[in-house]
Amino acid sequence: MAKTFILGPINSVRAIFPAGRVAQRLAVVFASGVILVTLGLFGVDLRRDFRQLESANSDNILWVLSQTEIEITSLEMTLQVALTQDEPNLNEIRKRFDILYSRVETLSISEPYADLRQERRVEPNLAALNAFIDKNVTLIDSPDETLLARLPDLAADTQTARQLIRGITAVGIQSFSIDAAERRDSLLQTIVRLTTLLAALVLVLVGTIVLLIRLNRAMRRSALAQRLISDRMESIVATSLDAVIVIDRDGHIIVFNDAASKIFGYSRAEAMGAEMSDLLIPDKFKAAHVAGMSRYRKTGKRHVIGKGIVQLEGRRKDGSIFPVDLTLSRAHTVTGEIFVSFIRDISDRVQAENDLRQARDKAIAGEKSKAELLAVMSHEMRTPLNGLLGTLELINFEELPPKHRAFMEIIRKSGKLLLGHVNDVLEISRLDVGKVVLNKQSFDLVELMEDVIATQTGRARAGGTELVLAPPHPDLHHVYSDPHRLQQVLLNLIGNAIKFTRNGRVTLEAECLQGRDEVMIRVIDTGIGIPEEDQERIFGDFETIDTAYSRSNSGTGLGLGISKRLTTLLGGTIGVESEPGEGSVFWITLPLMPPEDEVICPVTLPQPTEALTPIIDPITVLVVEDNEINRFVARSILEQEGHTVIEAHDGAAGIAAAQANDVDLILMDISMPGMDGLQATRAIRKLNCASALAPVVATTAHAFPDEIAAFRDAGMNDVLAKPLSRATLRKILADTSDGSSLSDPAPTAPAKAELLDEERLEEIRDELPEEILNSTMIRFEQDATDFFATLPDELDEPLAVQDITKEAHKLAGTAAVFGAKRFRQSLNDLELKADQLDPAALRAQLQDLKECWADTLEAMEKHPRFVTQRVDACEDS
Fold first, then answer.
1. CA proximity to 600, closest of 739, 440, 457, 736
2. Where are the beta strands (DSSP E) in 536-661?
3. What's the rounded Cα separation, in Å, for the pair 236 and 232?
4. Which DSSP symbol is given to 17?
């Protein structure tokens, strides 16, 4: 086999040179003739091409000289015309001067003009021309008033400069004409020398051919020496660390080296001539191997041959199976086609990989355990914290001395801060172990952003910072994602921006990059900025930046880590761009396109409680809570408000208390040993007593959107987040007393909105310039008019109803921009209900909508925010 591989190149050389001196000489003569003819043609083409190239270069240089003279003439003419005008076109003068500047710069520094610049007659003219440029370049860039005043001086200088350029051009034409002639003579001499050189190369080529003929003869004489090389190759195969196995086309082994014997356990005598499939291939792969070889012999299709390293399994003599790396190739010999395989035992490597994989799995399990431990510890830490903060609610601060009152205020603020840190750690833990489930739905992104701005404005003002919402795209009134998680991200980003911005501006804006398939939301601040080397690590856990405000700002460093995880969970990306001292831009991109069958629904987002809800009449409240401190806090606050409290320490006791007493409200803890709050609520709802109908409010420290649905399914009416406070308890009591619970609201008609949103009108007047406000207002009126004018006569066609809802959705977005509050509400109501109404009811609703538009338009025409603009717009038209 080795002999075959080595003798192959020798046979190729023999094929190039046929036997016989006559044939060799004829081949040499023919090749030399072809080379000579080719060289002659090449010399002719080379001479013609060089002449054309040299001519084109000279023409180009002369053109630039002529063009420079034309440009200064144009500048001079423009200046003469400008001197006769009352309001000359100064921009045209600047343009002409800039073009002339470019031409002069080319003459002054460009390599093709180096010889021209050294001409004795050109050097003083070019220096004077550059002085003209340097003198007037500042004048050209000066304000219009300065340039206008000095136009006469510039015109006089330009006339002088034109004479300088004319002198340079004349010398250039003369110089380049002489130079062109010299270059052509030089080129001709070069071509002659090149031809001579090529002739010499031909002689060398002929000598080389003769040498190759002699080498061919020497190779014939050395053919016998190849046996030694063949023996060496056999030695290499024999001493290889990898198994080398060669089989013929029928699958019989014809080469089996020592390494193969060590790996598979067969001696060479046992392996030679045997079928490889019977000796080395595991039984489960034998049928596939035989089928593959048969397919190759019939069709030539290869699956493993020539495909590089393939990981398979082999079988030893003792029957054990082990992993191998296989490389298979094919070759042709005088006896036919053969297949050469190199096989390496990778048992140790595979074992090491398995060990590494197990170590990785253990590390991952350890991380999950750590995350679960953090979650448990966070929950256990919140229990005493909730008790602490709840107990503070029982203390009447007004009765304390000022000094003690300040101490208690520090305790309350520190407790709330610590509770926030614990909640951040719990949130990270939930995200890392995959326990956060998104609650995606259609919602109004613009409204969500407005709510976020409203909740953070007070905090921004405290630091002298202005918080602004840039006008968003109208399509963002209808998007699809998890609004609660998105609100959490925005609050984190805006909170960070406010924290590191003093007496500046924070702007929230949203932009559709690719429709609603890719929406970018940016939080832009004018704060202290972030160094480039810190911009990657700020999204890590427990990462804080040491800044000028570090003494007045604190935190766990988890906010951005949570935001990054939530953004990724929402299918988006998050990043930052910042310059120290200039501010920062935090951005997120999200897919927010709603599914085709989704309609926008109102979303209730958590809002801060600014004031206590009024006290209601005394009621009986059942408190089901396993933590004694939390029960004490709830009982104390409720009794101070005049209510009767019944306590139960777990779910079973709560069921018994509900059955034994008629209660008006049940406060149900969720996490309790034994029977949890969900199970207890389901059992209470099945009781045959008055308490079975009482509102049940979940009390929990982790009321996430994905869990609220489970609370409602169990029969709960509302959710109250711990720690309990007097304000939150008053609010929940008021909500449940008037039937406004979240899960089971009373079927009441929606309140009729006011015609115009005064606050929005104030904002849009401040946000938009008058001319844009005028044009968009007129367009809004025209769109509304077109909407009613194009309503179909027949309303029983599904396509007609779809068109109506589509246009109503678009018009509602515009109405929201202009503060047409009642009109927008009516359009949203139409969009939601149109496909559920019969033609008569739909026609009636459209008539009501038309009347609402008439009232809205009349109110806008009379409103002081629009009167001036509309009058001006009418006068302009």
1. 440
2. 573-579, 583-590, 620-624, 644-648
3. 6
4. S
Q: What is the full DSSP assignment across 235-281?
A: HHHHH-SSEEEEEETTSBEEEE-HHHHHHH---HHHHTTSBHHHHTS
* Residue whose C-alpha is closest to residue 745's, from 608, 600, 602: 602
Residues sharing a CB contact under 8 Å with residue 591, sequence separation 6 or more, in sequence order: 481, 516, 517, 518, 519, 571, 572
β-pair partners for 587: 522, 575
Please state, in angstroms and as integers, the Cα–Cα distance from residue 549 to each residue in 118, 386, 463, 758, 835, following that order. Answer: 64, 30, 12, 38, 56
Show Cβ contacts of residue 740 under 8 Å, excluding neighbours closer than 6 positions. Answer: 746
Query: DSSP letters of 211-243?
Result: HHHHHHHHHHHTGGGHHHHHHHHHHHHHH-SSE
Q: Please provide the average confidence, as pLDDT, over all residues in the chain.
A: 77
Q: How far is CA 192 from the centre of its chain?
A: 64
Over the range 442-462, which residues count as b (16 or more CB within 10 Å of their CB) and which as e?
bbbbbbbbbbbbebbeeebee
Q: What is the pLDDT of residues 679-727, one digit of tens each?
A: 999 999 999 888 898 999 998 865 555 577 788 888 898 888 766 777 7
Rounded (10°) CA dihedral 797, 798, 802, 805 = 70
Which of left, alpha, beta for 273 (phi over 0: left; psi -120 to 50: alpha)? left
Q: Which of 215, 208, 223, 258 is nearest to 238 (CA)?
A: 258
pLDDT at position 399 over 60: yes
| 677 contacts 670 by C-beta, under 8 angstroms | yes
Q: Which residue has the higher pLDDT, 376 or 842?
A: 842
Rounded Cα distance between 298 and 296, Å, is 5
Two tokens at 696? 């049940």
What span, in angstroms and rounded, lies between the C-alpha atoms of 485 and 567? 8
Do the beta carbons of residue 655 and residue 686 sit within 8 Å?
no
145-154, 343-352, 533-542: range with highest mean pLDDT: 343-352
Name residues whose C-beta falls within 8 Å of residue 686's C-beta, 6 or more positions apart in sequence. 692
Q: Write out the DSSP string of 754-772.
A: PSS-HHHHHHHHHHS-HHH
Least confident range of 17-21, 741-745, 832-836:
741-745
Residue 496: CB atoms within 10 Å: 23
Conformational region of residue 34, where left means phi above 0, alpha means psi within -120 to 50, and beta covers everything else: alpha
Task: Write out the DSSP string of 136-186.
Answer: HHHHHHS-HHHHHHTHHHHHHHHHHHHHHHHHHHHHHHHHHHHHHHHHHHH
Structure pTM? 0.36
Under the banding of pLDDT at 50, 70 and 90, the label for residue 40 is: low
Per DSSP, the residues of 382-398 read HHHHHHHHHHHHHS-GG
**The sheet that has 718-721: what strands, in order across it?**
644-648, 620-624, 665-669, 696-700, 718-721
pLDDT (mean) for 758-764: 65
Q: Judging by DSSP bridges, how do beta strands 519-525 and 583-590 pair with one another?
A: antiparallel
Q: Which residue in the block uniquely carries the two structure tokens 């009781």?
A: 687
**Cβ neighbourhood burial of 868 (10 Å; 0-12, 13-18, 19+):** exposed
**Which helix or strand (DSSP H or E) is residue 342 part of?**
strand 336-345
Query: pLDDT tens for residues 546-601?
Result: 544 334 455 556 778 888 888 988 999 999 998 888 889 999 999 998 887 665 55
Which residue reads 């109501």 in tokens? 829
Between the CA of residue 34 and those of 26, 194, 200, what are the distances in Å? 12, 18, 15
Q: Is the pLDDT of residue 622 over 90?
A: yes
DSSP H or E segment with residue 410: helix 402-432
pLDDT in tens, 625-655: 887 767 877 887 788 788 899 999 899 999 9
Q: Using one digit for the tens of pLDDT, what is the confidence trace for 268-285? A: 888 898 888 888 889 888
* Per-residue model confidence (pLDDT) at position 791: 80
Bond into 618 cis (ω within 30) = no
Q: In whole angstroms, what is the distance from residue 283 CA to residue 780 CA?
A: 78
